[in-house]
Design a protein that fits this description.
Order of helices and strands of chain A: HEHHEEHEHHHHEHHEHH
Low-confidence stretches of chain A: 225-236
Pfam families (chains A, B, C, D): Thg1, Thg1C
Helix content of chain A: 40-55%
Strand order of the largest sheet of chain A: 4-1-3-2-5-6
Organism (chains A, B, C, D): Xylona heveae (strain CBS 132557 / TC161)
CATH superfamily of one domain in chain A: tRNA(His) guanylyltransferase (Thg1)
Enzyme class (chains A, B, C, D): transferase
Oligomer: homotetramer
Number of helices of chain A: 12
Largest sheet of chain A: 6 strands, antiparallel
Family (chains A, B, C, D): Belongs to the tRNA(His) guanylyltransferase family.
Cofactor (chains A, B, C, D): Mg(2+)
Shape of chain A: globular
CATH class of one domain in chain A: Alpha Beta
């Protein structure tokens, strides 16, 4: 029995390749996490278990998908960055987005009980939506990540102050909201310090900076003369191929070597500044996609 | 601290609305399920636990997303159909696809242990990819679903015979593959019957027909004179609005009524023919999107 | 000398197929025609030469592109409709849109001097932009064309009254605009009649109805019982293929016959109602894409 | 008479913005120019009138659309390049492509009689199709243009030899084709020289290099140390904005100044190498989009 009579329906599937030589960011967001955080009693303003779970899921995604170069997470959102030379799934948008979203969700649910012990999940289950965005230049990509990290700071300062007013100051939510309306960062710092003896600078980095997930190679001493967005140390041909956005024609042996170095690399979660040049200068592998040196075990 | 300096990166997000007045099918597929089925020892040719788990996850997706009209699953794939008048997420493709994929994955992992008792999941975790396809007419949509159900039949007949040759006939995989090369359905039926006394017609419907998930209303007596793809019983204005693909301007009261009828409807999983007209004629709510009559509890 | 080093740039070209089984409308619009009409002294409210030129260009486009089923024009815009089963250029959006726009522009400039004698064109030259829109059902397509024809009526009634106030009533543009602000159709009819003895109903059909360009076959007596949007008289298999949106598997002989009937058909420009069912019922070839009967020469 | 009943059809129009911060190339191609060149008796292998007409039309397009930075043409194709920071028509693909195609066609037809005197145009009229392609980096853009210029060379060498074999060598087309099958550039050079005393290097540059259309500013002395793809001489903030792909926040006065410098710039057509760095280094305005210095009239 052939299937030819109905097979024409495949023609309705439309191609969705993302533009070559652009950075691909897949950002996922928790669906209805306001409600979900209430249901499972997340602590305010930040629930360490919830953040640790997000980070564990993100690290697992990076392990399963070695094409991801860096991930950045805050609250119930996570951004996964594929290198501009990435050709995974022939850069088909649906494939890339759904694979990231599904893998993340899978680990999130699987790992839930390790972080929320004795808090069983029940329907409706947590879920995430996602989208892909293309960024043509290293500069644009860095600005995207800076945007997320600045947002993290703005939101965390607000939330820290908001919940201090409520939990420590005894205000209601509406009253606290009103109190903060129109305030600047300095005002919020002042409220925290003068009323609650909280120095915002001493708040945990994980909440102030969000979480950065990368493969861990030996840090590089930044060269004075080299701009951050360049790919220092590349041979000229490689550099040229990289600028074209096509995978360098590496020999099988070289490819195998790179694969192994990626697999061997430890995936780490850090809470550091990714806005300044230093982060990128010391980790040239992020923009170049050439795996760095595996640090010696101690 | 304002975020204006980096916020321009939002302009790189591109709109992705799906065309109005088209049926939306989100089809998800297990990633690397060949390997996964080996890892967890799925029975061959069909593992009832695996299929039941897929169906349970699909039913949960339909419960969480009332905009889904019908779902059809076979093996490690599932198709979810949104009505052509659906406006969920303003029909944004990424939102629709990722929400379905993530919700499905979430339930799949959550419910795993109910179906695979004492078979704990471990990394790499199961995941699914997905894509959306638009179908302009009822006819195209039905042909899509027919395509999947015919495919189910073709694959199941092949797999049943293939594994009979191996498990009952003692052949190796290569030998069995060679044996089946170029055979017709009738040949496979003959092999099953003459060599293994298996009458394919008596195989379980769940494997032969796949699984159909719908909201369960009272079946309707098909009208002799009405074509299946019409929407019988609609008032003229409603019918006209339906043909335009715009949501009829229902009164708040009517909308509330419909919502309740949808919520009250039991979600059922059946293993029946969806190719023939009868299935659609008896369930006019599938194509019309007007909830049917809730059957009386017995 | 091979070109392989640079040829990778072809990979940046992205596919743009339009969805199968949808009506394709390419609408073109004059760029900056307000300024252009001043430059060449178009008569107000309507310049017959300008409209005749638009119509002549549109008819030529239909002659060159037999895949176009119907075109409708008003003022400096024209809509060209490709049948939902059309496979020209594999339905690539850019190809379809640019071909229509370019062919139209070419004839517009070429034929200019036949309609504007002694009014030579000069830089900046007239040009048109265009876009494609998909409509899934016959109903949607008819609504699109109805939308344009209603717009034609609304604009023409407004312009006729506006220019009567100016040319016959001696008003300035601002004054006339103010006078018409907030008026209904009936008010404008009244102004025309009471102040200027103009009965709007007696205005030329070409301005009130716009211009419809079709291939001219023998009109069909509408069947009482058949809905306009069906395809009466089709054999069942053909009808089924038509509903799928795939080209019926016509024999070579049949295809050749159809081609000839299309080529033989005279292209006519008419100024008639295309909103009511009658227009479509009497010209079933428009929706079915089966060429009608060539009228006998008299 | 309101138009609300049908106006819903506008919802079927889909957004089509091109990605910010990418170079936009609109390439147009003559439709059926093989046939057209026979109809109007184009000379072989190159017809100077036809090329001059293409170039004149392209120069007019650049005059009408100041957002175009450079255009490159060969045979019946032309590529128009919009700067990566261009925001014309909000970067809507259809608008950009159709405007270029239509404007080009308009001038092509209008100027025809200036180049083909006593060769009147007749239906079917010349027309062009077009498409837009995005290139993320300066490097990719330059590779695109290099690709076209290398193609020009390859085709022209082939055609020159092919037609020499026919027109001077008395061969038939099939025979000439066979003669050239599998030959390298050096073989064709040899054929031209040994059989027909033609030194390919002495062929006109317009055929060997194609045509480059740019605004003519004072050439810049290339700096030894600066890579071609950078934007030398920019102040740091400007450079940073340029890398972001957003229009620098120029003051009104500055904008006005730039507009005037663009308008004052003469548009020139040249037949020179655009593959080597020199072309770009001496004309930094092409990649930076900062208008250069208007040369003094002599």
């Amino acid at each position: 029995m052939a299937n030819s009579k109905y097979e024409y329906v495949r023609n309705f599937e439309q191609p969705d390749p993302l533009l070559p030589n652009t950075w691909l960011v897949v950002r996922i967001d928790g669906r209805g996490f306001h409600k979900l955080s209430a249901k499972y009693g997340f602590e305010k303003p930040n629930d360490r278990r919830a953040i640790d779970l997000m980070n564990a899921a993100a690290a697992s995604v990076m392990k399963d998908l070695p094409d991801i170069v860096i991930a950045y997470g805050v609250s119930d959102e996570y951004s996964f960055v594929f290198h501009k030379s990435c050709t995974l799934f022939e850069r088909r948008e649906s494939k890339l987005v759904t694979t990231v979203v599904s893998t993340f969700t899978s680990y999130y649910v699987h790992l839930w009980s390790s972080y929320f012990t004795n808090v069983p999940l029940s329907a409706p289950m947590p879920s995430f939506d996602g989208r892909a965005v293309m960024y043509p230049t290293d500069h644009n990509l860095r600005d995207y990540l800076s945007w997320r990290q600045v947002d993290c700071h703005i939101n965390n300062l607000y939330n820290t102050t908001f919940w201090a007013l409520i939990l420590l100051g005894g205000m209601g939510a509406t009253e606290a909201e009103k109190e903060l309306m129109g305030t600047y960062s300095s005002d919020k710092n002042e409220i925290l310090f003068s009323r609650f003896k909280i120095n915002y600078n001493n708040e945990p980095e994980i909440y102030k900076k969000g979480s950065v997930v990368i493969r861990d190679y030996e840090l590089v001493e930044p060269k004075k003369s080299t701009a951050a967005v360049d790919s220092p140390g590349m041979a000229e041909q490689e550099s040229s191929d990289a600028e074209r956005g096509i995978s360098a024609q590496l020999s099988k042996t070289q490819q195998e070597k790179e694969r192994k170095r990626r697999e061997k690399a430890r995936i780490t979660v850090q809470h550091i500044d990714i806005i300044k040049d230093e982060f990128w200068q010391r980790r040239p592998w992020l923009l170049s996609n050439k795996p760095g040196k595996i640090p010696k075990e101690i």
